[in-house]
């Protein structure tokens, strides 16, 4: 399996702060921001300066460390330090409720806090674990990419929705990790990217990533996928996920469910690419996944200009849930999970 070298590094711990690409500035600007406080990290996650479930998880781990550094300056007792830091950690998780990786990463940090016996040692261990989560994510995504590449036909056109690439992770990608690994072996691979309204992550981010890495990409609007499927121009769909239930139901960016229905009708394989950390085995189905409601302005405005009648009612869920019956396979670092997902997911966590 040839290795693809992506040019993108989304988020990393540097000295005593977190450095990340500001994804609200795309495509006009590609620039990094320095996050030095816990509240800045909360805001960065909330406002989607950093986005994508794995990247949010890394940001969460870094955020706990930033809070720890701030609280250290208060010169508290060990017990008071732990108490305040655990409270701040819970607050950080509330910034984006749908992506389970945020909860998963912060829980790891909370375990370090609970078991610590010295404030300086706790802070150092939080830094080390945040860095580990960051580097492990890249390695895991490369495994996901290599497993996924095995089911990509030669010369395939892959449709993706939203952005599950290097900029949604530590630096390689889940859905786009599959694309990168497939492209490394077959440069005739190409991508169709849905624009992904209302925040247009496909248009702003996925196309930018693929152009930067020299992978052919065609941008289409969200309503066009069935048209191109019927014309035989799409061979498979690969998307990411923000939370996957124990039965295989997968929450991803709003509009994913619609793509899955269209793929099923046209007999096109529909894959979800995600690390095991995105699978929440504590919930039985997608009905239990909390769907984040986002601001009305994301829908009513584009580039600062209102596009609809004043006073119109707006509902803006950030995600939808694709039922497991529509999913051909879930591509993980342990391999491609197949139905019955209750069984394959449970076995993946045992192995």
Care to describe what's here?
- It is a single chain.
- By secondary structure, the chain is α/β, with parallel strands linked by helices.
- The chain folds into two domains: 11-141, translation initiation factor eif-2b, domain 1 (Four Helix Bundle (Hemerythrin (Met), subunit A), Up-down Bundle), CATH 1.20.120.420; 151-350, Rossmann fold.
- The chain is built from eleven helices and 16 strands.
- It has a seven-stranded mixed beta sheet, sandwiched between helices. Strands 11-8-9-14 form a four-stranded mixed beta sheet, covered by helices on one side. A three-stranded antiparallel beta sheet has the order 1-2-3.
- A hairpin with a 2-residue loop joins β12 (301-302) and β13 (305-306).
- The longest helix is centred in the middle third of the chain and has 31 residues, at 119-149.
- The mean pLDDT is 94.
Provide tags for this entry.
16 strands, alpha/beta, 2 domains, 351 residues, Four Helix Bundle (Hemerythrin (Met), subunit A), Rossmann fold, seven-stranded mixed sheet
Set out the fold topology.
Blueprint: E1 11-14, E2 17-21, E3 32-35, H1 38-46, H2 53-72, H3 78-93, H4 100-115, H5 119-149, E4 157-160, H6 175-185, E5 190-194, H7 201-212, E6 217-220, H8 225-230, E7 236-239, E8 243-245, E9 250-253, H9 256-265, E10 270-273, E11 279-280, H10 297-300, E12 301-302, E13 305-306, E14 319-322, E15 329-332, E16 335-337, H11 341-350
Parallel strand pairs: 4-5, 4-7, 5-6, 7-10, 8-11, 10-15
Antiparallel strand pairs: 1-2, 2-3, 8-9, 9-14, 12-13, 15-16
Helix pairs in contact: 1-2, 1-3, 2-3, 2-4, 2-5, 3-4, 4-5, 5-6
């Amino acid at each position: 399996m040839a290795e693809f070298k992506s040019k993108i590094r989304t988020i990393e711990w540097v000295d005593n702060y977190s450095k990340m690409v500001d994804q609200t500035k795309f495509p006009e600007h590609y620039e990094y921001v320095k996050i030095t406080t816990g509240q800045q990290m909360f805001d960065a996650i909330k406002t989607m300066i950093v986005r994508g479930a794995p990247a949010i998880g890394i940001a969460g781990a870094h955020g706990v460390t930033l809070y720890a550094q701030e609280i250290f300056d208060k010169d508290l007792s060990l017990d008071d330090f732990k108490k305040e830091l655990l409270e701040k950690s819970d607050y950080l998780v509330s910034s984006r409720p749908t992506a389970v990786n945020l909860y998963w990463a912060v829980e790891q940090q909370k375990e370090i806090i609970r078991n610590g016996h010295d404030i300086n040692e706790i802070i150092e261990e939080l830094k080390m674990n945040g860095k580990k989560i960051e580097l492990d994510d890249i390695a895991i995504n490369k495994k996901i990419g290599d497993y996924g590449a095995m089911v990509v036909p030669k010369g395939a056109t892959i449709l993706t929705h939203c952005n599950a690439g290097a900029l949604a992770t530590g630096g390689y990608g889940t859905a786009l990790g599959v694309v990168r690994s497939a492209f490394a072996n077959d440069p005739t691979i190409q991508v169709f990217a849905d624009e992904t309204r209302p925040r247009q992550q496909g248009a702003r981010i996925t196309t930018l990533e693929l152009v930067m890495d020299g992978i052919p990409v065609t941008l289409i609007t969200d309503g066009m996928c069935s048209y191109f499927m019927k014309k035989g121009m799409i061979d498979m769909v690969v998307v990411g996920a923000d939370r996957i239930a124990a039965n295989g139901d997968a929450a991803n960016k709003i509009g994913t469910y619609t793509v899955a229905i269209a793929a099923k009708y046209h007999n096109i394989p529909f894959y979800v690419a995600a690390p095991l950390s995105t699978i929440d085995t504590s919930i039985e189905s997608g009905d239990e996944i909390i769907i984040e409601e986002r601001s009305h302005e994301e829908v009513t405005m584009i580039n600062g200009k209102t596009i609809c009648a004043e006073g119109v009612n707006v509902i803006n869920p950030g995600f939808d849930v694709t039922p497991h019956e529509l999913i051909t396979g879930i591509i993980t670092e342990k391999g491609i999970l197949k139905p019955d997902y209750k069984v394959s997911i449970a076995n993946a966590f045992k192995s």
